[in-house]
């Protein structure tokens, strides 16, 4: 997933500081490349495609990796495909997270920390402890080229966007239903954004989510619709990133778009799914630049006995409880600070 690939890219910055002459390669799903493209700490990208998901092609791919003669393989993904690739790599040092069924594939199995904050970053950097490395928290970064930023500035202005006025990107839909704030609730969030700021609004959604995005638009007040520019979006992920760079803030469902905005130094207001923990994915939070709200903040009693898998099954009913009125004041403070 895009958020995982972006977050894991911090390992390269840490490794480059420790080993300035090392060759650092990143094996990723090809579709996620835009978020790490132009990263100055990565020497080479190796793409995993849909073809490699078949066992024959996967083994062939793994043997191609083997011929690279890597000294160290760090498997952040730690699923069956990466287990096989790592096991066949010939690297003497093979590092991943501890899972009882995959320990034989690795020379070092690191147990994840379960308490604390920013755990997605902390646990990734913990993988480097095998190499005798300790690192402070590193912020994921996206490296846009100046011409990319300029091109999208021109595009926005041609579409009638006034970049001197507030411009908000709304992540109206998550990557799946269990990470998507109920559409009527999201419409109320957008209504508040417009009412508080008189700002311009863009929608972020995937092409296959266009119908749901239109539903959110129709649920908004008529006064809000006049501020929404539904037809402005990037033709690809790099375009989206460059458009987001010009936004005052990105607001909406926690996920890849929120992580990308943070990596672009764009302010964020994230609405967490009840089954995703803020302790893991809530990065660099404060009251003005990066705000995150979670049902647990308002109804902690609902989480006293519930665990991840149970929460995931009950996410629809828990989302229903998570009304926009719970965080109206937090959103108002954020919007006031971001204007």
TrEMBL record:
List UniProt keywords, sorted A-Z: Glycosyltransferase, Transferase
Question: Which domain of life does this protein belong to?
Answer: Bacteria
Q: Which CDD domains match?
A: GT9_LPS_heptosyltransferase
**Name of the protein:** Glycosyltransferase family 9 protein
Q: Which species is listed as the source?
A: Gaetbulibacter aestuarii
Record-linked InterPro entries: Glyco_trans_9 (IPR002201), LPS_LOS_Heptosyltrfase (IPR051199)
Q: Give the PANTHER family listed for this entry.
A: ADP-HEPTOSE--LPS HEPTOSYLTRANSFERASE 2, TETRAACYLDISACCHARIDE 4'-KINASE-RELATED
A Pfam family reported for this protein in Swiss-Prot or TrEMBL:
Glyco_transf_9
